[in-house]
Structure formats: C-alpha cells, structure tokens
Amino acid sequence: MTKMTLASYPHMLGFEQLERLLERTAKGSEGYPPFNIEQTSDFSYRITLAVAGFAEEDLSITVEDRQLVIRGRQAEETEGRIFLHRGIAGRQFQRSFVLADGVEVGEAVMENGLLHVDLTRAQPETIVQTINIRKG
Q1: How wide is the angle at C-alpha 96 spanned by C-alphas 95 and 98, nearest 5°?
Q2: Cis before residue 124, ω within 30 degrees of 0?
Q3: Which CATH class is domain 30-76+88-121?
Q4: What is the pLDDT of residues 88-130, one digit of tens each?
C-alpha cells in the first residue's frame, strides 16, 4: 500500500510546506511539561502548561517564524539542601506550537503553577475574485 501525501493530490496545489510542517510537528516531542489546548471561543484558544516550581523569570515566550516557543530554565538552588528523594521535575524545557496565518499571541498569565497563553485568530473574510479571460 502506498502512503498518500498532500503532494499526491492534484487539486492540492502549493501545500508542500504544509506537509513538511505536519511531518516536523508530528515528530516526537517529549511529554514534559504536560499541556492543554482549549478553544475558548470561535476565534480564540488557550494553551496551558503545567510549570509547577517555575517562576515567571524562569520562563520565556517568543514567536519565531510562526512558531510559539515557550522555554523554561530554573536556576539551580540546591546549595545547602540534601534531597532524600527528588521527584519534582525542574529540568529545562522547550515547547513549540506552530501558528497558522492570522493567529496572534495575546497575553500570558501564571496562576497556581499553570502558565496560560491566550491566542486569537483573525475572523476570516469572504473574498470573491473575478478573473478576466483575455483573448490569446
């Protein structure tokens, strides 16, 4: 059985980048930190990451080439502390989310160990374009 790709459909013109984007996004990203994505209205979303133990200054949020990138890095403050068990993950992380055209990043809020990042999508405009046919 042959794997069908977007490029193999003759009516899907110019979607090669989308196919590469889907393949890149599907390639594994580890499960840390866990996150939720919820639709908060017809044109808005919220990404929530569980970042217990991270302070606001330990986190950075950037948009790079239509990707929302959230990074976390905690300063090592273990001096003078002796852990008998260390089960709370505090390792650095990077989570990337690909943004469609028209999706903008709004505000980010820390609340009870959760980082909320709000996104809005521009409402689509219906555009009808008439193409004139010239005689050859």
Answers
A1: 155
A2: no
A3: mainly beta
A4: 767 899 999 989 888 999 999 999 999 999 999 988 777 888 8
